[in-house]
Amino acid sequence: MPLRFGITALEFLDVARRVVIDGVPDFSRLNVVDIVRDAMSEFSVIELTMDVQHIVPGSVTPDTIKQLIELQEETSLSYTVHLPLWSIELATFNEHVRMGGVNSTIEAIELAKPLNPEAYVLHMTGELAAEFSKSEYSTSLVRLICTLLAGFAAASVDDIVSKTEINPRKLAIENYKFPFDIMRDVIDDLDLSICFDTAHLLTRMSGSEPIMDFYSTHKDRITEIHLQDATYTEYEGAESYDDHIPLGRGIMSEPVLREFLLQLVRDKFDGPIIFELTMDEASESMDLIRKVVPEAFD
């Protein structure tokens, strides 16, 4: 069974190229349906970034969703949804901010529901939790704070699931800037799924183990994969990284890429494998996969 590759249809640079003319943005040029239609030429799974409805008001409406459903009915297209990330902190102790994030997430789910997405990708923690998890307090104190923040995140997800009445297994929690072993306990408790972002692991946002170790540990819950390369360097305690680059340009070696995708084939993984890249970068990554792991297309 071939692996199923897809792309984030509203990747920032691709959108910017459409709406910025001679340095001046013209948001009337942003047509989500046209962008999805273009992406369909190479990919059968499209991930919709729901932050766009706030960045460009009116860009994703019930009518947009209706047109996307029509595209789906004409083809074998399927959708996943990346729930709002920017300015969201579901793990905060500030109840006003936390509920703002909960309500924004609920609004996005209700808007996207008619698409029957395969998964709703969610960042359970944001920049506040990331800052605490990287603080210079003692290891035991940082673990305690992260555990407390994970409790707030769990309360947020519980609110989201109860108010939207979605199957909690459709919420795929992404490994992002937070100790994932702590987050895994919440995922198990709430019966959620996992979106495994390879670049976030390569840049040590969620741990330092090899890709195959992370996959082996969590594959029982992984329902979606964000597949991309990354760079990472550390010097005298300072980190430098780029977490969304095409395969072959970063620190993921071709043998690791082959081992990982072959294991997905052996495991009969049928979830979406999404490139959070531009169309050109995603095509470049697909070319490398065809060369290194031709079995992924059998």
Strand order of the largest sheet: 1-4-5-6-7-8-9-12
* CATH architecture title: Alpha-Beta Barrel
- Judged by helices, strands and strand pairing, the structural class is alpha/beta
* Helix run count: 12
What is the strand and helix layout of this fold?
Elements: E1 4-8, H1 12-19, E2 20-21, E3 24-25, H2 32-39, E4 45-49, H3 52-55, H4 62-74, E5 78-82, H5 95-112, E6 120-122, H6 127-133, H7 139-164, E7 171-174, H8 180-190, E8 193-197, H9 198-202, H10 211-218, E9 222-226, E10 229-235, E11 238-245, H11 254-266, E12 272-275, H12 279-292
Parallel strand pairs: 1-4, 1-12, 4-5, 5-6, 6-7, 7-8, 8-9, 9-12
Antiparallel strand pairs: 2-3, 10-11
Helix pairs in contact: 2-4, 5-7, 7-8
Describe the structure.
By secondary structure, the chain is of the alpha/beta class. The chain has a single domain, classed as TIM Barrel, CATH 3.20.20.150. It has helices at residues 12-19, 32-39, 52-55, 62-74, 95-112, 127-133, 139-164, 180-190, 198-202, 211-218, 254-266, 279-292; strands at residues 4-8, 20-21, 24-25, 45-49, 78-82, 120-122, 171-174, 193-197, 222-226, 229-235, 238-245, 272-275. The protein has an eight-stranded parallel β-barrel. Strand 2 and strand 3 (24-25) form a beta hairpin. Helix 5 (95-112) packs across helix 7. It is globular, with a radius of gyration of 19 Å. It starts with a strand and ends in a 6-residue tail after the last helix.
